[in-house]
Write a structure and sequence with these properties.
By secondary structure, this protein is an alpha/beta fold. It has twelve helices and twelve strands. It has helices spanning 85-92, 119-125, 137-140, 147-159, 163-176, 182-185, 195-207, 225-242, 253-256, 277-282, 287-294, 359-362, and strands at 43-54, 57-69, 74-78, 101-109, 112-113, 130-133, 213-217, 245-250, 262-267, 270-276, 346-349, 352-354. The protein has an eight-stranded mixed β-sheet with strand order 6-7-8-3-9-10-12-11, with helices on both faces. α4 (147-159) crosses α5. The chain starts with 42 loop residues before the first strand and ends in a 15-residue tail after the last helix. The structure holds adenosine-5'-diphosphate, iron/sulfur cluster (SF4) and magnesium ion (MG). Magnesium ion (MG) binds at residues 85-86, 217.
Length: 377
């Protein structure tokens, strides 16, 4: 590793572009820096809205999110804690209790509408077509069930494998995710594995049914940086074999350069900027993205001193402001519309969208990453 601090989660939106987390040759559909991938998307999310009934009123947590995922690509969903990353993803799996949640809009998985789908249909989608890896495997692994059964359960249910076939596949998957002596470990319980090994078991479960879409919700945040890099690489290798589309959720903009083709920046339940990863670093158009990039530590620096973080807090989801949600924290908000009108997410370049009235003017500014000497992979 490069020895810099700030790569671990310190609770703030800071990160470290890593030179060692090189991008594996994934089966991309041609996204990269050239623009949006071609071909049919496997997942089409359109105007997704999620709100919760609370004692204080309706909390508007996801506010009109639209995006596509294509086979074999990795898209990073980045934003501060509380910006709606997990809720918008749990909605894809039908995992939000309704009520208190209300889910509106459209989520189509290979053409199948998931919003309003029956419990049976959603159960079939979960683990089979869309799998999710969570940050803390201890909360999603069953502590009283041997891991072998946890890995094979979905395959037996969704793929109809026999006990022997499922066991063989479990051993193969556990080998591929780097669990030593997997045959012997099938009978072990989650607490008998280290944190990194548990996360590998979670990945094996996530990939057990060759999902069309894998959602990785901050799966490496709690892990040592070396293990983080190994897990990123592992998912990329497996993805190259299977063509799975990956939605990689993180609060850390510094890690996405090494793992994603495209980045979506989320703020107050909206995508405020979306771009191929290089364009986002070179030519950020939303003041929030610039703020996040300016707060990344420079490679080789050993202290956090001098980093700019974004002052202020995101808006209260129970009292969303009528105008731009970033307005209270924005330092360039001199357009008269900012306070009263929500800026639409508009195309500003190939595959590059930004929701700010300032997108044109931002193009004139130097990149806070390139010009500060922060290197990206
Ligand atoms: N059941 C719930 N009821 C009310 N608010 C909720 C509920 N679940 C999540 N939220 C709110 O939704 C917002 C987004 O949460 P989340 O998606 O977990 O954020 P992120 O994953 O980006 O850190 C937060 O403000 C959180 O408090
Ligand atoms: S629309 Fe206005 S307030 Fe919002 S980010 Fe752009 S400049 Fe700032
Ligand atoms: Mg989350």
């Amino acid at each position: 590793m490069n020895g810099s601090t700030g790569a671990r989660d310190d609770g703030r939106d800071r990160g470290l572009p890593r030179q060692d987390a090189t991008r594996a040759p994934i089966a991309s559909t041609g996204g990269g820096t050239a623009g949006r991938p071609s071909g049919d998307p496997v997942l089409e999310v359109e105007d997704l809205r999620v709100s919760f009934g609370t004692r204080r009123g309706r909390a508007e947590v996801v506010n009109g999110v639209t995006y596509d995922l294509h086979p074999g690509e990795t898209v990073a969903l980045v934003g501060e804690s509380g910006s709606g990353k997990s809720v918008s993803s749990l909605a894809l799996l039908g995992l939000l209790p309704t009520p208190p949640a209300r889910v509106e809009g459209s989520i189509r998985l290979e053409g199948q509408q998931l919003v309003g789908a029956s419990d049976d249909a959603l159960r079939n989608v979960r683990g089979n077509d869309i799998a999710m890896i969570f940050q803390d495997p201890m909360t999603s692994l069953n502590p009283v069930m041997p891991i072998g059964r946890q890995v094979t359960e979905g395959m037996r249910l969704h793929l109809g494998l026999s006990a022997k076939e499922a066991r063989d596949r479990a051993v193969d998957l556990l080998t591929r995710v780097g669990i030593p002596s997997p045959e012997k470990r099938l009978e072990d319980y989650p607490h008998q594995f280290s944190g990194g090994m548990r996360q590998r078991v979670m990945i094996a479960i996530g990939l057990a049914c060759d999902p069309t879409v894998l959602i990785a919700d901050e799966p490496t945040t709690a892990l040592d940086v070396t293990i983080q890099a190994q897990i990123v690489e592992l998912v990329q290798q497996l993805q190259a074999d299977t063509g799975t589309a990956v939605l990689w959720i993180t609060h850390d903009l510094g890690v996405v350069a090494g793992l994603a083709d495209r980045v979506m920046v989320m703020y107050a339940g909206r995508i405020v900027e979306e771009a191929p990863v290089d364009a986002l670093y070179d030519d950020p158009r939303h003041p929030y993205t610039r703020g996040l990039l300016a707060s990344l530590p420079v490679l080789g620096e050993t202290t956090d001193e001098g980093l700019e973080s974004i002052p202020g807090l995101p808006p209260d989801p129970v009292a969303m402001p009528p105008g731009c949600p970033f307005w209270p924290r924005c330092t360039v908000r001199d357009d008269p519309r900012c306070e009263h009108e929500a800026p639409p997410l508009l195309e500003v370049g190939p595959g590059h969208r930004a929701a700010t009235f300032y997108a044109e003017a931002m193009a004139e500014l130097p990149s806070p990453v390139r010009d500060a000497g922060v290197e990206t992979p």
